[in-house]
């Protein structure tokens, strides 16, 4: 006789248990999946946001400002590289040694700095020379080409007309029979200089008489890539520079490229000065936001390190002989150690500060919902446990050990949570492409293991013989509850106090995310939960006393159950408080940033409209004023740098020339208007100026301050920057005081006041047509839209929206799960009430009573926390990273928006109650009636 073998093994029983009621386990798996997805996707999305913001930050300055560059006037090192250069052989024989030294210096740099720097480039540019055509009339336009040497000329330009410059093997001054020096010019430069290919002119230097050299334009060229960063170093290489002072004839300057292998004769003349640049092009695509702090440190070290580019020493120059008479001879220094400078570190520091502000705001937004997410996961595990309780109690009654029960519960949790975590993590990586390390997967793994730990921990509560009522026997835990609540409130108070004391002096812009800043929102929410749980029973007791004398059954029973056996524990209270607080905080932050952005845009424009970028003629100025809708215009007649002599040294300041009356008419009534003292127009021994606060402080410390050799007197100062200059060091003078301070008044910017009701876009279009396509016309609204479209602005808007949506969903889910957990209590009560005539509407009312009082009180507490959070958290975050301004914006609390948020929270709670009350309560009541009847 064969032994009977049961097919109901432990695994089979677990599967049948799951199949009988899969909903709770599926819900648990979905929560883990979403948590894992969030844990992996959010850090990667933030990394992408930081990188996009960094790229935008670095796209602003010219490449020449970012590329680590060494500029020196010494003679570059001559010689071959012994194979270490990638230059053509003839060019490498001259420039190879310097390039090899630069390559070695780059290769010696640490990563990631080494990885973001390209191969070195070089350019030598000589002082301007005169190159007049033979038919030039006296007093006419002057042409001042600058001989330029680009070792990689053929990699930067292509020939348009004529030939490449031939090698120059002559001398300076040229000997009889020497071929002319050949050059190529960019086509626009050649056209501006009226220099035709094949034409020969005499290249003459005022500082080196007798060193004139016949120069022939062999051809014209065009850039292979006009956007190549090389051209930001080679100023005037593609387009001519046209300078005109007063009524003097214009002077046209441009780079004249010679054969890169045969430029050395120019260095044999001592008085022909030149400057050489050697730089490493920055590969912007290789820079990641995560590497910024390390790059900043490495750039700082690199900037303080001298790099050897040549042997140093001196070389003897050939004597300059003119008409058989030796004019002079001498020697020239050879480049040795040079220093590389770059604005890349400053730009990276700005981007890091911006990223720190973004991280701080996101940490404040995420910490609360993250705590609720954990609490909801605990509730979901409780729901799974309650659904599995009857079967597990049967196993316990039949002798199953607690260890076996723990293994059963943990096994089911792992079976659903581990695949869910893997799937969620993989989905997060697919959605977000940024690199944020393995931290997200660690969090996902924790979420995968937490349900197993939660379920296994509840196995000890399984008892088939005794069920403890939730409304009795809780007194023993009262002492520990008080201790915990006092600790929570104390921690929240201490953390809030520390955060408020710290302020912006150690703001996120300087310190980044810290645990205190991230923990304060959750601690305040927990403290509010403590107050809610302690305070809301007080009015409820009074209500129960009143309802006891009324004839309404549902209201009395609902209020009494809400007081005696409340479903509202910490988790649903926390969910409502955090949900409402996050929504309120998000609305306040959004209003603050929007208002701050609008204010910053208006301050940067300085008027209703600004047009800038080009020198404007008198006819154009008159045209601006005649545009329909324009009330007043005020040109900025000049903007130039000038030396300010203070404290025994000179510093560079920007001199702005305006007409005080015109500017006052344009800015009248504006909160960001410059306060222009009447003394600016009063003549005296010193020029009256309005100065920035830093310049005013320097001038105040100097007994006899001079601006470009003229005495100045500060009659007013301004703390914030002026919209007419990007520099912090500036002075503003009236046009009547500008004689001798600026050589000529050429307006390059005009601010405009519009008529009331005028359409800014229509006026801007009309002004653009007059100014030309190359001018920049902006209104505050246009600039505000640009600022809002920046990655940080768009990212903040998305984060705030996501925080509100996620918090609302978590709130609704927490309420639903709370009511599901409370079903057994309702199931025991409803049969009795049903026999007393309770209908379906009454059942829903009882469900609402379970959660309603708590929701109302918690929503009020959430609003309080949400309004308090901006004043606490934002005090340590530099919001100018979001507004684009220079001043921390004021916090804006919109009462209507706050009320709308509260209404939305209550609507979410009502919907959750409706869902929980409508799912299965009738079946639960029937089942409970049957259970009561059976025993």
From TrEMBL:
Q: Which organism is it from?
A: Agromyces seonyuensis
Keywords assigned by UniProt?
A: Membrane, Transmembrane, Transmembrane helix
State the superkingdom.
Bacteria
Where does the UniProt annotation place the signal sequence? none
Q: Which residues form a coiled coil?
A: none
Q: Which molecular function terms from Gene Ontology are attached?
A: transmembrane transporter activity
GO cellular component terms, alphabetically, are:
plasma membrane
What stretches pass through the bilayer?
360-385, 413-432, 438-461, 482-504, 516-536, 570-591, 796-821, 851-877, 897-920
Tell me which InterPro entries the record gives.
Answer: Macrolide_Exporter_MacB
What name does the UniProt record give this protein? FtsX-like permease family protein
